[in-house]
Amino acid sequence: MKKLTLLFLLISFMAQAQQITWPGNKKAVIILTYDDALNSQLNVAVPQLDAAHLTATFFLTGNLTNETIPRWRALSVNGYELANHTLYHPCLSGTVKGNPANAAENYTVYTIVREIASMNTLLNAVDGKTARTYAYPCTETTVGGVSYVDSLRKSGLIKYARIGGDENAVVTDFKNLNPLLVPAWGMHGNNTGAELIAFVKKVQEKGGMGVFMFHGIGGDYITTPAAAHQELLNYLQKHGDEIWVTTFQQAMDYIKQVNK
Question: pTM surpassing 0.90?
Answer without folding.
Answer: yes
